Amino acid sequence: MSAQHSAPGHAPGFKAIRWNTDWVTRPLFGIALAALAIFALTRDAPVYFAGLIALIVLPAAYEWHRMVARTRAFRIETAITAGSVALAVLSLALDASVAVALVLVALGAIAAVLLAVRQGNAPGWEALGAVYLGLPSIALVALRAFAPDGAIIIVGLFAIVWATDSGALVCGNLIGGPRLAPRLSPSKTWAGTVGGSIVAALAFASFIYYLHGAPRQAFIFGLLLSFTAHAGDLFESFLKRHFGIKNSGAIIPGHGGVLDRIDSTLAAALALALLVFAFHLDPLFGAHA
């Protein structure tokens, strides 16, 4: 069945695949970004990782406020959101408490609300940027700074998220079939979603096995956390559909915007931090670096 004659609720699968430069740019830039993240993550002091997150938040905040205000102009709300999140994660890496970091993000959200009210913009959406970017950023730095083997835990998190995204892309394109949520994201399929989760579970189980942990438990955990990554991706799809845009930006070749690249990580990082700090989960399942 060709792309032109596939059912409206179905993706055509491998028969409709055509050569695209994204096949080269997407993995190359993905590998480069992964290498940069791992380099910062494995430095002795967590401030390097926090600094990388602060740098990533700036274009992400720009994309967020551009999206919710439907303008390409750089707005003061961008500086407020990016600044509050950067201060939060850097202070956390320099031994401040999580409470201080949360207060800084809350102050950024309040400032965005006050400015939005003055300018006649939507205060809820403007304030949500600081929360949407800030809480997962705090979660990542807290895992790095306070959790035992925090750097290895985050590498495992990245393995789940990246395998989820890559597995979903490959399985969705090769298999096609019923679409997952055509009103939110016409390109996502059930085959891609399930395939991405299975790939993520296998990748994380292999990672834990290599570290001499419990691979069966890791497989189940990787499978479940991958669904959180899918949920983060779908949430950003909802946002883009709500505001009438296709991509959050175009800064990363083959990936779109920064928000398009980190949406899954934001959701999965927050979920993992809650499991580790609130429920005392060992996300390495007996393995140690």
Explain this structure to me?
This protein is mainly α and 289 residues long. The chain folds into two domains: 43-146, no CATH class; 149-289, no CATH class. The chain has helices at residues 22-41, 47-69, 76-93, 98-119, 123-146, 150-175, 190-210, 215-243, 258-277; strands at 10-11, 177-181, 185-189. Strands 1-2-3 form a three-stranded antiparallel β-sheet. Helix 5 (123-146) packs across helix 9 and helix 6 (150-175) packs across helix 8 (215-243). The longest helix is centred in the last third of the chain and has 29 residues, at 215-243. The N and C termini lie far apart (49 Å). The model is unreliable at 1-6 (pLDDT under 50).
Write the layout of secondary structure elements.
Layout: E1 10-11, H1 22-41, H2 47-69, H3 76-93, H4 98-119, H5 123-146, H6 150-175, E2 177-181, E3 185-189, H7 190-210, H8 215-243, H9 258-277
Antiparallel strand pairs: 1-2, 2-3
Quick overview:
With 289 residues, the chain is mainly α.
Q: What low-confidence regions span 5 or more consecutive residues with pLDDT below 50?
A: 1-6
Largest sheet: 3 strands, antiparallel
Mean pLDDT: 88
Contiguous helical run count:
9
Strand portion: under 5%
**What is the H/E order?**
EHHHHHHEEHHH
Gross morphology: globular
Judged by helices, strands and strand pairing, the structural class is mainly alpha
State the share of residues found in helices, binned by percent: over 70%
Give the number of domains. 2
Strand order of the largest sheet: 1-2-3
Distance between the termini: 49 Å
Radius of gyration over all CA atoms, rounded: 19 Å
**Count of beta strands:** 3
